[in-house]
Amino acid sequence: MYKISKEFSFSAAHSLFGLPADHPCSRFHGHNYVVTVHLRAKELNLQGFVRDYNELNIVKEYIDTVLDHRNLNDILAPLNSSAENLAKMLYDHFKQQLPELYAIEVSETPKTSATYEPERE
User: Fold this and answer.
1) Edge-to-edge, what's the strand order for the sheet holding 2-14?
2) Domain of 99: which CATH number?
3) What is the domain count for the chain?
4) What is the pTM of this model?
5) In this structure, is the dihedral angle defined by the CA atoms of residues 42, 43, 49 and 55, taken in order, positive or negative?
6) 6: which strand partners?
7) With the C-alpha atoms ordered 101, 87, 73, 30, is the resulting torsion angle positive or negative?
8) What does the mean pLDDT of the chain come to?
């Protein structure tokens, strides 16, 4: 199995509901997010790629247009704007366009990340 990944970054704000009032994430705050797109294939294409990295520019365009410098609460509503929900939303959005996609990872900080990877398809 061949695997590739590519990182994208953006800045956005959110607050999480359902937490105690004194929880820092219940207050409106921002992050510098890093989204990692993971692709895999059993065989390489004619160029020797899982997929040309340039073809992943659709992810950058979406992030820049829809997510960057936005309130993620508005975008993910009615779901909580957690990294986990954001990872699944991005996976669902891109899976049809990128059939090699097997996981999306979202980091809110350099030390934390959440990954959405469906059970074997």
Assistant:
1) 2-14, 29-41, 101-109, 112-116
2) 3.30.479.10
3) 1
4) 0.93
5) negative
6) 37
7) negative
8) 95
